[in-house]
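job 3f2a | input accepted
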Amino acid sequence: MFLFFFTEQKYVDLKTELSRTERHILKEMGFICHVEHPHKFISNYLATLETPPELRQEAWNLANDRYIIVDIIIIIIIMIIIVYIRVFQLTLYVPRVPRDP
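job 3f2a | predicted structure (101 res):
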């Protein structure tokens, strides 16, 4: 049995290098490794507006709970924009107010 004794700094360096190597491998395989989460933006905006800490915490919690829903809403908005652009390109008539059944 081999026992390796690392100093704390050596362990941190090895862990950092392993993470960096893993990220490079994932990028080469086509994975997107950089994602902007809404938490940072929410925190910065609310701090700029000098809101109370309770509001910041509630906004943070909602961002955690609703992250998946936000992705779905963004996809829906993109799909609506695509349909709108295509309707405009084809010069189709689309009523602004839906008809009563």
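job 3f2a | Residues 24-89 form one domain.
job 3f2a | closed
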